[in-house]
Write a structure and sequence with these properties.
Blueprint (H helix, E strand, L loop, with lengths): L11 H20 L3 H14 L3 E2 H5 L10 E6 L3 E6 L9 E7 L4 E12 L2 E9 L12 E8 L5 E6 L19 H4 L3 H4 L6 E5 L3 E4 L8 E3 H13 L9 E7 L4 E3 L5 E4 L2 H15 L7 E7 L16 H13 L4 H9 L2 E5 L2 E2 L21 E4 L3 E2 L10 H13 L4 E3 L9 E2 L3 H5 L4 E6 L1 E3 L6 E4 H16 L2
Parallel strand pairs: 1-2, 4-15, 4-16, 16-22, 17-23, 18-20
Antiparallel strand pairs: 2-3, 3-15, 5-6, 5-12, 6-9, 7-8, 7-12, 10-11, 13-14, 14-24, 18-22, 19-21, 23-24
The structure holds manganese (II) ion (2 copies).
């Protein structure tokens, strides 16, 4: 049962479309390096496609009708988009869900210190990273600093070629005998992921008669922070600053068939889901696209999938469309169908040993469906029903989408989770779907443009299915 490679199927026109989509995606992930930036980019695209904010929809002064498009922004970090269908809400929605947070290093609340004429910032990593991958490469700083008066200062430093970048150092091989004998998890320790941000020493206080002047690197750094951003040290206490690899995503390969970029887990599913969503006009079943935060740390908090924001937003929309009652909300959720979209581990010829080959995901073979994820005997997974998988097979085949099925590695090799089981709690049908990538969770991840193209087609077919 080997699945076919999608590249062989394309004519000239399709290849052109595929490359154009790949380029739009490349630009999106180059600009959207935090969940907040992704929400901003997605909202801008949604507005262009005719979406109103939930607040605007409430102020319309009329009920919502089929074809109306509404988005809800959750604290600027998660986003829910809806296109109202011709069927009543209680019949359920077709939902695409993906996450837009990615592994990274967060700046600590009290980060600044000077050590031996170098100023550094302390970090605390977010999500599952191999810490040794984050040293000796150019890093950028993205996020917000919020002043006590509520002023939000946006930071995106290290992306323009004119910007300086930041860096965490590694030990030279000449003195690394001890380091190199450690297990990989200990080669670079979390508390040692300290970001270099300056080294120019300046005079703080002129010399008194016969004495030395008081000098520091810190004074200069604080002056620069004040002058460039208007922030003082205490403002870090109310900041969310994320350290991410600096620079744009790039075409990968002589044939430009792949993308090398940061944060493709899971912005690759987020972007393709959004593109599919923006193509839907007045469907039969209401369409929904969820781009959520906090998946990498367990989908917790106000902006994670465990939060009630989704259910609350659906309640708001039902009330804007029909006479509201609680039972309609419960039916709307239970009768929904969902593709919980997250990346799969692509089979990597450099590391073939971790896969069972018949049940692995392959680059270029299209959208990947995982009946289950989890670990150690499917622990913690949403095990999609056979009936629902049959339905999804039919929808994909009828739309001519290239797709494959996979598990995450060999039995007991490891495992992972997604947001699928959380949506499953509503009693809806949900299956894990997504795009396979190589070097998942590394600063630079690899994806196939053919898979981006097939996923977008698959998501669109799913949303439009009756
Ligand atoms: Mn993911
Ligand atoms: Mn992940």
């Amino acid at each position: 049962m080997e699945r076919k490679n999608a590249w062989l199927s394309y004519d000239k026109k399709q290849k052109k479309e595929l490359m154009a989509l790949g380029e739009r995606y490349r630009v999106f992930i180059s600009r959207g390096k935090t969940e907040r930036e992704c929400v901003e980019l997605a909202v801008a695209e949604a507005k262009k496609a005719g979406y109103l904010s939930l607040e605007e929809a409430k102020a319309l002064g009329r009920k919502l009708v089929p074809g109306d498009k509404v988005y809800a922004d959750i604290m600027g970090k998660s986003l829910a988009l809806f296109t109202v269908g011709t069927e009543p809400w209680e019949k359920g929605m077709n939902i695409l869900g993906a996450h837009i947070d990615s592994p990274r290093l967060d700046i600590k609340q009290n980060p600044l210190y000077e050590d031996t004429d170098i100023v550094l910032m302390d970090t605390h990593y977010y999500g599952g990273i191999k810490k040794y991958q984050w040293v000796a490469l150019p890093l950028a700083l993205h996020g917000v600093v919020v002043k006590k008066d509520g002023t939000v200062i946006k930071v995106a430093l290290g992306e323009s070629p004119k910007d300086p970048v930041l860096c965490i150092t590694d030990l030279l091989p000449h003195l690394a005998a001890n380091q190199m004998s450690k297990p990989a998890a200990k080669v670079v320790e979390g508390e040692d992921l300290n970001l270099i941000i300056g080294s120019e020493k300046v005079v703080e206080k002129k010399a008194e008669k016969g004495g030395e002047p008081k000098a520091s690197v810190m004074k200069n750094i604080k002056d620069i922070l004040e002058k460039t951003y208007g922030i003082e040290e205490e403002d870090f206490l109310s900041a969310e600053l994320e350290v991410v690899p600096a620079g744009e995503a790039r075409d990968l390969g002589l044939d430009r068939s792949m993308i090398l970029g940061y944060g493709q887990d899971d912005r690759i599913c987020g972007y393709t889901s959004l593109q599919a969503m923006l193509k839907v006009e007045a469907p039969k079943r209401t369409s929904c696209c969820l781009l959520v935060d906090k998946e990498e740390i367990g989908s917790v908090g106000a902006t994670g999938m465990h939060s009630r924001f989704f259910e609350n937003t659906v309640a708001e929309l039902i009330a804007l469309t029909e006479e509201y009652c609680d039972l309609k909300l419960r039916r709307a959720l239970t009768n929904s169908r969902m593709l919980s979209s997250d990346v799969s581990a692509g089979h990597d010829p450099n590391y073939p040993g971790v896969d069972e080959k018949k049940n692995a995901a392959y680059m270029g073979r299209g959208l990947v469906f995982n009946k289950f994820t989890g670990s150690r005997g499917k622990g913690g997974c949403n095990d999609a029903s056979a009936e629902y998988l049959a339905y999804v097979r039919r929808v994909m085949d009828e739309a001519g989408v290239f797709w494959q099925t996979a598990e995450l590695g060999k039995v007991d090799e490891g495992g992972g989770g997604t947001i699928a089981y959380i949506a499953g709690n509503y009693g809806m049908n949900v299956v894990d779907a997504g795009i396979s990538i190589l070097s998942m969770h590394a600063p630079w991840e690899v994806a196939s443009k053919a898979d981006i193209y097939e996923a977008t087609k698959g998501y669109e077919a799913f949303l439009k299915a009756e």
